[in-house]
Amino acid sequence: MILMCGLALLSACASGDKELVSSGSRYAAPDVALEDYRLGIDDRVRMTVFNQPEVSGEFAVGADGALALPLIGRVPASGKTVSEIAAEAQRLFGDGYLRDPRVGMEVITFRPFFILGEVTQPGPYPYTVGLTALNAIAVAHGFTPRSDRGVIGIRRSGEAEEKIYKVTPELRIYPGDTVRVQERFF
Q1: Which residue of 105, 120, 128, 148 has the fewest C-beta atoms within 10 A of its own C-beta?
Q2: Within a 13 Å sphere around the CA of 28, how many CA atoms are in the beta-carbon half?
Q3: Average pLDDT value for residue range 120-146
């Protein structure tokens, strides 16, 4: 009985007294999770302006959270969807630069995710659509022998606190996430 209480206390300490999350949007299908994707620093987009190849191209969201676009200059992009930015660019191009512009935009490279803790090679890695926690750990060359394989901590880009998640095959990682694989105690 004393041993069981001790184990319960240790497991509570291991997760930092944070509530374990085992359901929610991170456990949804990948296409649902990126449906309303918000751009952030280091995302790259391809902008196509119909019949205007000289202003079409690939652009990165800079450190200030803006896209530097030809003719119209810096357009705030961080925290906005691709369709919102395309609509804004279309409006700005039509405001004295191009006659009846039609702008299309898509994300071509997502910002990286970061993985640290008890994995063989911690660090930043490129994000791919549909990335799961198990895929992220595999990209980092797997668990170390001391890894807790049942739970991981994830801090979403822009959030201050990490949440503890139950590791399942469906657990999704998003661009800019910081994933922490914890150490087990036994």
Answers
A1: 120
A2: 10
A3: 95
